[in-house]
Q: What sequence folds into this?
């Protein structure tokens, strides 16, 4: 997957507009296809032998990612097919849809293991049943901490229509908060993607994952 | 709670708190259930939860059919895949038409009716098969099985948690850190006893906390302390003066439930002796009404030895001879039962 690039266009559009998943302005951004595959749960053997032995997760096979910025705010739009809208926990054995993007904060921080000790990753996690997204920091499996969206000024809106979710994340390019990715127009960042399908009982490491890192280019 | 701690460190404890429940004395009064419910699970999202439950055996159990839902470890110690429980299996959370009956209707027009949390008539509820049991007249049989978290020595829930939110305390109690828990429910799947319940309001999994705030103050857990039948013994498993040690280790009449699940549970049961069965001629036989193989299915093959010991010791008392074991099970002084955890909760 190395070399795959997602271009965040500089758009002179109010960021509030782009927070609307259906905003027409998104048509000005070229969507990039991101293939997804079931996350290799065998990697979590040391953390959960139960999950490591599980099968059948991560049925969502692809998503489309678009990005834009206005010099101050990054907007990231994900679209993926999911025939069932799972945004409420209707029974004790039911799960909700979710999506996340992850950014390595150190060289060699691997998203698939959620980083490693001393090699943190930052993630934005949207859960269909939650009022706000979470700003996550992790240094390896089982270490993730969910921080409130206000930590970095993260917002998210999502819409489920015609068998597809459309989700927009927004966050200011700059932040002083520790453990939060900082963006700079003209310099690239790395990004990975994950989708959880509630109807498929996806959760934790049981998810669909982009096999590798994409480069996120913020137009200068 | 440390993050990223190894599973071995999370599962380590210095001692082990344990309990013994004498099924020969449990009368299914549900006082333990109410003691627990009123203390711990009266919050939003816990309506269906019973950290302490009493079900009739043989029966479908609580949560319903928990014995057919997998989890725990196989004979080689490998994780066994498990299933989740549903709201109905956990006893539902009935709503009643109190307003309609008490204030809106006149006379006998409306009757009090439960409604399932899913709407409609309930299809199952807590204790739905109470006292049904098994066996044909004149030899029907059943016994009550009180259950709570076993605070296992090898907790499958702890092994399963991808967020390392579950750990064993120094005293052996297994607890879920509600701040770390993300409600993934791998613990619910892994617990073969299905003693972990999901709270859909907080989106976290909850379980018996062993009444640790009481225990830290020297007070036995509410379910044990409130039992009016003196069925419960409580304390550290290695306290040789305590009744738990004496019943589990010395007399070996208290056995874990489903030891084949491989988690080394720390709630032990004195299996029930039952009345003699009638034979085909209608005369009392020497056979117990609850068949030995039925009890073996719950408590493993050691149950036959435990029952033989109980019978032999009871026979001593019938002959007016002393029996240390019968004295232990009778417990004339309630304080003797609680391994020093006898302070007054009030």
A:
């Amino acid at each position: 997957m190395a070399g795959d690039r997602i271009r965040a266009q500089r758009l002179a559009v109010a960021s509030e507009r782009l927070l609307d998943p259906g905003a027409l302005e998104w048509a000005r951004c070229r969507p990039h296809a991101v293939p997804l595959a079931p996350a290799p749960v065998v990697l979590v053997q040391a953390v959960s032998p139960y999950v490591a032995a599980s099968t059948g997760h991560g049925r969502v096979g692809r998503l489309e990612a678009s990005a834009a910025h206005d010099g101050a705010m990054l907007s990231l739009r994900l679209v993926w097919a999911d025939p069932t809208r799972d945004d409420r926990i209707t029974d004790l054995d039911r799960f909700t849809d979710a999506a996340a993007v992850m950014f390595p904060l150190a060289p060699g921080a691997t998203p698939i293991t959620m980083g490693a000790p001393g090699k943190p990753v930052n993630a934005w996690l949207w859960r269909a049943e939650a009022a706000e997204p979470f700003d996550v920091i992790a240094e390896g499996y089982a270490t993730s901490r969910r921080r409130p969206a206000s930590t970095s000024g993260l917002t998210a809106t999502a819409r489920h229509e015609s068998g597809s979710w459309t989700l927009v994340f927004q966050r200011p390019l700059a932040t002083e908060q520790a453990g939060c990715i900082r963006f700079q127009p003209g310099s690239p960042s790395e990004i990975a993607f994950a989708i959880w399908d509630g109807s498929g009982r996806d959760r934790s490491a049981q998810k669909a994952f982009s096999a590798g890192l994409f480069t996120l280019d913020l137009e200068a | 709670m440390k993050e990223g701690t190894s599973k071995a460190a999370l599962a380590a404890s210095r001692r082990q708190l344990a309990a013994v429940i004498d099924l020969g004395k449990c009368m299914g009064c549900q006082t333990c259930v109410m003691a627990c419910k009123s203390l711990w699970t009266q919050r939003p999202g816990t309506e269906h939860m019973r950290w302490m439950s009493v079900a009739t055996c043989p029966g479908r159990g609580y949560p319903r059919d928990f014995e057919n839902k997998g989890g725990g470890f196989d004979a080689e110690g490998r994780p066994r895949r498990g299933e989740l429980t549903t709201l109905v299996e956990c006893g539902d959370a009935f709503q009643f038409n109190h307003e309609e009956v008490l204030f809106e209707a006149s006379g006998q027009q409306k009757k009090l009716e439960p409604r399932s949390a899913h709407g409609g008539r309930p299809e199952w509820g807590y204790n739905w098969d109470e006292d049904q049991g098994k066996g044909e007249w004149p030899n029907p049989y059943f016994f009550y099985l009180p259950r709570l978290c076993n605070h296992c020595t090898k907790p499958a829930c702890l092994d399963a948690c991808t967020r390392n939110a579950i750990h064993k305390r120094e005293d052996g109690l297994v607890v879920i850190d509600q701040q770390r828990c993300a409600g993934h429910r791998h613990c619910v799947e892994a617990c073969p006893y299905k003693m972990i319940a999901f709270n859909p309001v907080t989106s976290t999994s909850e379980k018996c906390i062993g009444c640790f705030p009481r225990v830290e103050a020297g007070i036995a857990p509410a379910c044990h302390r409130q039992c009016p039948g003196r069925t419960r013994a409580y304390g550290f498993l290695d306290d040789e003066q305590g009744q738990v040690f004496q019943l589990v280790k010395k007399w070996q009449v208290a056995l874990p439930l489903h030891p084949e699940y491989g988690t080394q549970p720390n709630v032990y049961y004195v299996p029930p002796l039952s009345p003699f069965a009638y034979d085909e001629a209608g005369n009392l036989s020497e056979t117990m009404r609850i068949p030995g193989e039925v009890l073996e299915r719950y408590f493993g093959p050691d149950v036959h030895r435990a029952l033989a010991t109980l019978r032999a010791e009871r026979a001593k008392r019938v002959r007016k001879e002393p029996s240390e074991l019968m004295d232990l099970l009778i417990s004339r002084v309630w304080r003797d039962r609680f391994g020093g955890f006898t302070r007054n909760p009030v």
Remarks:
- Residues 5-218 of chain A form a domain with the Immunoglobulin-like fold (CATH 2.60.40.1190).
- The two ends of chain A are 24 Å apart (CA to CA).
- Chain A touches chain B at residues 44, 46-51, 53-54, 89, 91-93, 117, 129, 139-146, 203-205 (CB under 8 Å).
